[in-house]
Fold this sequence. Notes:
Blueprint: E1 5-6, H1 27-40, E2 45-47, E3 57-61, E4 76-96, E5 106-119, E6 125-131, H2 132-145, H3 156-161, H4 163-170, E7 180-181
Parallel strand pairs: 1-7
Antiparallel strand pairs: 2-3, 3-4, 4-5, 5-6
Amino acid sequence: MILPIYLYGQPVLRKVAQDIPADYPNLKQLIENMFETMYNADGIGLAAPQIGLDIRLFVIDLEPLAEDEPKYAGFKKVFINPQIVERTGDVVKMDEGCLSLPGINEAVEREAKIRIQYLDENFNSHDEEYDSFFARCIQHEYDHIEGILFIDKISGIRKQLIKSKLNNLIKGRVNCRYRVKSVEGKRN
């Protein structure tokens, strides 16, 4: 089922998410819905807060990028109760966008390498290291479950330049081809 994506201004996007137990109700269906919602919006990652749930869960699928970058083929993962335990390497600046902030792209600095511990959809434990774009995508989604948006990592000047776009998102004045839920606007 395709779910509405919560836009900037929704309080759930600013909450630190809670761990989920292995018996979380309808978890398998929720994960399927998250992937379907993400694909419908042409995204490569989606965190539970983006669909209104303050739980520590996100999904990533880089397969859509594999045609241009074969190394992304088969990278489809579910991260449950993740913890980034180490960030290393050079700090790299790269443009990022977000399904909860449609129409906004900004250069964000992130560490090039991470080590993350998480549970997969079967609640098997993993301790893995990632670098480059893999690390960037994971950090972006991980930030969502920490109540952080990528715009929190840009300069004050850049934030001022996008202020009117952010206000429009809060008011639901946005043209998206996917379902969204804004603070003041109605669902579409």
